[in-house]
Every structure is written in C-alpha cells, then in structure tokens.
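INTERNAL AUDIT FORM
Audit reference: QA-55
Scope: verify that the stored structure record matches its stored sequence.
Auditor: D.O.
Record contents follow.
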Amino acid sequence: MSNLMSPIITHQQAKKLDQLAVEKNHLTPEILMEEAASQIFYRFVKDFRKIKDMKIAILAGWGNNGGDALAVARKLHFSNIPCDIYVFKSKKESPLFQLQKSIIQSLHLPLLPIEQFFQLKNETLNQYDIIMEGIFGIGYQYRPDPDIENLFQNINSSKAKIIAIDVPSGLTIQSPISVNADRTYSVGYHKKLFYQIQCRKSAGKIINLPISFAINHLQNQNTTQLVSKIERKKLPENPFVHKYSKGGTICIGGSIGKLGSIIFSAESALKIGSGIALVITEKEQIASVNQMSANIIADDYVNLKDYIKKYSTILIGPGLGFHIPDNKKLLKDSLNTHAQFVLDASFFHHFSADVLKLFQKPPILTPHSQEFLNFFKIDKTSIMTDTTEMVRQAAQQYKCYILLKDCFLTLATPEGSILIIDHPMRIAAQAGSGDILAGLIAGLTAQGMSIRDSILQAVRVFYTILEFFHKKSYNTFDPKEFIQLVGLKKEI
C-alpha cells in the first residue's frame, strides 16, 4: 500500500480550480457552494455529537465565504438545530451571498446585525458553545480595520469552540490578528497558507472537505503535498547477514555534559534494526559511554577514519562539542566519503552551510527552525511567513534533504518537492525527541532503505510511539522507555 497524500494549493490555484470547475466541468458556482455547505454540515454534526444541545452562533461575511456560512445555517435549520445568525449590514454583497441571504429570509430566520455580537459581554458571549465563522475567505487581503480587529478579539476571547469555514478569517502573513480557530474546515484542498509557521496555530485542527475540484486541471505539477498517512514499509528480511551488512551506524557527538543525546541516537538506530552502532566522542567520554550502554561501541575522533569504510551511515550532531579543537578538523576531513550522512542538532552550531559542498551524497538535515535560520543565514520573518519556499530553496541550492521540525514537519528534497507531516503533539516538544528521531532515520538508512522512505518510516514510528504515550495521558516520556518501544515489531 502507498502513503496517503493530498495536494496543498496556493490562493491562486484555489481561484483557478473554482474557475475551471465552471468552465470545464459545467459546475455552476451555486452547485459548488451547495456542495461545500453539505460537506461542512455533515462534518459539523459528526464532530459534535450533542450538537442539538449546544448553543451555536454563525457569523457570515458579505462575500462567498459568508454565503457558505448561510447555507450551513439553512441546513442546520432543516435538521432542527437552532443557531443565531449574525450578518454585516450596508456592505457590497456578492451575488452568491445575496442568493443565500434571500433563501434564509424566505424561511423567516432572523438575521442579527453583527454589531449585536460586538456588544455581547463576556457572560452572554460565553453562553455560546460553538461559533462558526465565515467572515472572510482565502482571498482576504489585510487592511487596517479597528472594528474587524475588535470582532476577531471578541471571537477569540470567547470560551466557545471556534470553527472556521475554509480558512480562519483574517489569516494572512501580513495580518496582525486573525480568528484563532479550534477547527478549520478547509474546502477542496489544503491551503499552503496553513503551513507557514506563523499561521499554523491559528488554523487549529485542519479537516479537508473535498468537493468537485479536479486537481489535474492545474497545468503545473503540484510539488507540495500533505502526508495524511504513512503506510508501514518493511525491509526485506534476509537471514544471511552479519552486523555490518545489516547496516552499521556511526553516531558522532556527546560532548561533556551532553552524552545522553548521542546515546539516545545510537540506541534508536540499533532498535530500528541497524546491525551495529558506534559512538565517536571525545576520549574522556568513552568510559562513560560504556557505563551507560552495553549495546554501543565507543571510540574517539583519532580513530574515526578507521571505521568509515565499514559503516554505511554517519549521524553527526546530538550533543556535539569540541573541547579539543583538532577533533573538529578530524571530523571535517572525514565528510568527503561514500557514506550517507544525517546532520542534526549541534552540527548546525559548529558548521556553516558551505560545508554541505563536501558531501558525496545528498545529506539529510534535521534542524528545528532556529537551527535552520542560523545555519542557512535566513532571517526569521522569511521562515515564519514563507516556510515551505524557504526550505525548498535551501534543499535545492545545497542539494540536500531537509526535515524542518516545528509544530509540523516540512520535508524538502534536492529536486524541490515538499511533503508536510502535520501531527502537532505537545508531548513531542521534549528534550531527547530530536535525538531519537535522527537515530531512527540513520538506522533505517544504514539498512539500505531509500532516503525518502527512511525519513517517512522514522517519522511514522516516532509518532506511533508518541501517540501511545499520549493515549496513556503522559505529559512527558522517558527517552529510554520510548526507545524500548521501537524494538517491538508488533506494536510498531
């Protein structure tokens, strides 16, 4: 079975799909709006099983997004689910909004002025269990408007669950404020805007609702995709192997006070199937490595070149430091080899991006956002507001794979394709988690799995175990316990 992926589209592509659905498939805008409203309605009642006992407010703008909101309100009405509908007065309404408004009026459903929502005090505002908003859509362009900004603040300050139709209103990279949704019902396809670090948190849980858009209408191949499910992929189980042919991993790092990091990485590589793991660290740390793990071989930098021919994968970075300056030179002189390199953590502190030219094979980089900024000398605004493009450009320019770690994962290839893995979990934000993930990637690569598959399978295992801890209501986890679970084939 293959991984489940779906395209991530830009604002311009979303508009084009709308247009082509009418021109090529003869789907009128009215049909598309009705289809979108049906999808939103069905998902809404599925997500909130006790919806008939809940107090609901629907806030409709004056454009097509507002038309969607009114169409959903109508469907709720015919399902005997009451809601308060708030609309803007004296605005230039879109034709589709006017159509939906006329239907609502023909049913004698009250349309309350949005000013009334403005005036709600906290006690009254908090009577709403759900606020569904369709004020602005994907085409919104930020313009300073104190009334709109106060409205967004009012929505965000409520205790209600906030549901955004298609996109949270006001969400752009320029906006100082937007609706902060608990859930976003994205219509058609996932939007690129969601996967900019600055914007991601405002969208909450993103649920994509397909309608009759044909992605093949877009001439340019879509190179940004969301990975919604990673299927398990097994390596061939060849019994005729020894520890080196099964795959050897060298893990380099673990300076004084940071030895745990490199041991977590090496143990993870072993547990995922690497035949042997060697830690290269500073000489005075070798005895401590032997005491902390009976599974790992340890040696110092002086002997690094003696091991390189035997090992297929080299991980550098967790806990890396150079109390002996010559060790940095010994390491740098070893980079131009046949091995597959995985670069993590402190590697990005000790080296600059120019070092990537030394590698014979495209290396795998696993930085978090700040490490990415420092290593590639990119300003913070760029990575926050144009995340996918910044990572894509760096991967193409330096001919490497980059797995950027933030509240979602961005995987870029040297060819320029982007995969997004969006599985935000608070428990993942813990010291040691990055060391484990890097070790999993290195261990799979050492066994001959392709780079792309190694990264995806490592991510799958990583989140499967995090989900295990999450379901048991852990607020944190013991890295040693985490690594032990890696070795359980039936579980992982």
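Auditor finding: record pair retrieved intact. The first helix runs from residue 11 to 23.
Action required: none
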